[in-house]
Amino acid sequence: MEGGDEIVPILNRWIEAAQEKSVPVYASRDWHPRHHPSFEEQNGKWPPHCIQDSEQAKFHPDLRLPENAVKVTKGVRFDQDQNSVFDETGFVERLRDDGVERLWIGGLALDACVLATVLDARKAGYAVYLLQEGTRPVNADGGREALELMQEAGAEIVED
User: Fold this and answer.
1) Residues of 109-129 as b/e, b for ≥16 C-beta within 10 angstroms?
2) In Å, how far from its chain's centre is CA 83?
3) Which among 76, 114, 121 is positioned nearest to 94, based on CA atoms?
4) d(CA 143, CA 148)
5) What is the CA angle 28-132-37, rounded to 5?
């Protein structure tokens, strides 16, 4: 994704701040099987991406995830996509077990997985803060629409 790597230093700053305050860090990733139903070749919306065990499925090499970061894998189903980290991953249960009430969210892509995650987080009752500089959209129009939808759902947009 064009400009996607620009978010890494921003996310690293927030990760570092979380660690300084002993706040847990969670990271999600797509981990699609080959011929995933979200791929265009299967009449899906997206080109092949984040294919299991491929280089592109790894976290960015400059992303400084702490050793104790909880990594959530999604997009592994053979019958549907899982844009949201909350979609049948058990993540909401983990957050509840950890006593989490607020989420600061960044990543890719603003108008796809980030949007779905923010909306599901709000539905689950979490206070949500979107790290606007820590995300990028697939396209500008989708990004603007995603921001509006998130704000309508009650998410706060953090511009720093």
Assistant:
1) bbbbbbbbbbbbbbeeebebb
2) 8
3) 121
4) 9
5) 40
What DSSP string describes 126-158? Answer: -EEEEEEEEEE-SSHHHHHHHHHHHHHTTPEEE
CA distances from 102 to 91, 130, 135 (A): 14, 11, 18
Strand ranges across the sheet with 102-108: 102-108, 127-136, 156-158
Counts of helices then strands in the chain (DSSP H, E): 4, 5
The CATH code that applies to domain 4-158 is 3.40.50.850
Secondary structure, 3-state, 77-89: CCCCCCCCCCCCC
Give the up-direction half-sphere exposure of residue 21: CA atoms within 13 A in the CB hemisphere. Answer: 8
Measured CA to CA, the distance from residue 132 to residue 4 in angstroms comes to 13
pLDDT tens profile 69-101: 999 999 999 999 999 999 999 999 999 999 999
* pTM (predicted TM-score): 0.96
Domain residues of the chain, as ranges?
4-158
